Amino acid sequence: MTTEEKIYFQDFMPGNVCFGCGNNNPEGLQIKSYWEGEEAVCRWSSEEKYHGWANLLNGGILATLIDCHCMCSAMAYAYKIENRSLDSNPVYRYATGTITVKYLRPTPNNKPIELRAVVEEVKGKKTTMKCNVYAEGEITAEAQVIAIRVFDSNQSNAGNPFVE
Ligand SMILES: CCCCCCCCCCCCCCCC(=O)SCCNC(=O)CCNC(=O)[C@H](O)C(C)(C)COP(=O)(O)OP(=O)(O)OC[C@H]1O[C@@H](n2cnc3c(N)ncnc32)[C@H](O)[C@@H]1OP(=O)(O)O
Question: What is the C-alpha to C-alpha distance for residues 39 and 111, in angstroms, rounded to an integer?
Fold first, then answer.
């Protein structure tokens, strides 16, 4: 059996202070996303402070996990389809246009969860993603997320609010 080292998308986003996905936010959720075939996967373990109902994960935190996993995965996909590495130029960054979450059943707060996202469509600046959340092998939420490319280092970014 070979053990392949995972390439985490967030490790290629220097200066990212985002609460959900920023390596540079020590108080944040610090998610890590990587490819498993065509699926972008994120495994995450909660903490007691993220309870909603006792022992259940807060729904807003779950939406944040989905959101950030999908933004980082939209970015990684853009590099993938251009057949280049995540540390190459031009640099692309994405922001959430729309997120729709259907909470199917309670998500435990004391068990690891897994997010699995796929790209459904890329059209211009817009990437549409589907993301499922699993706990103990059962789906607990499904989401559709629309990511919009808001930064392209090849273009003029004067006045762009999405630049540090
Ligand atoms: C860079 C420096 C390094 C820094 C270091 C790294 C930092 C790495 C940080 C990562 C961080 C992750 C972040 C986590 C996720 C957030 O938290 S992101 C924050 C929450 N989201 C926002 O604040 C976005 C606010 N909204 C906006 O800024 C603008 O409305 C948008 C969404 C960028 C759209 O901009 P726009 O230029 O008006 O878009 P436009 O060209 O008109 O439309 C393009 C297409 O998108 C569609 N569209 C437009 N808006 C929407 C929408 N809201 N919903 C759906 N579709 C839309 C349009 O219909 C159009 O579609 P087509 O006609 O082509 O089919």
Answer: 22
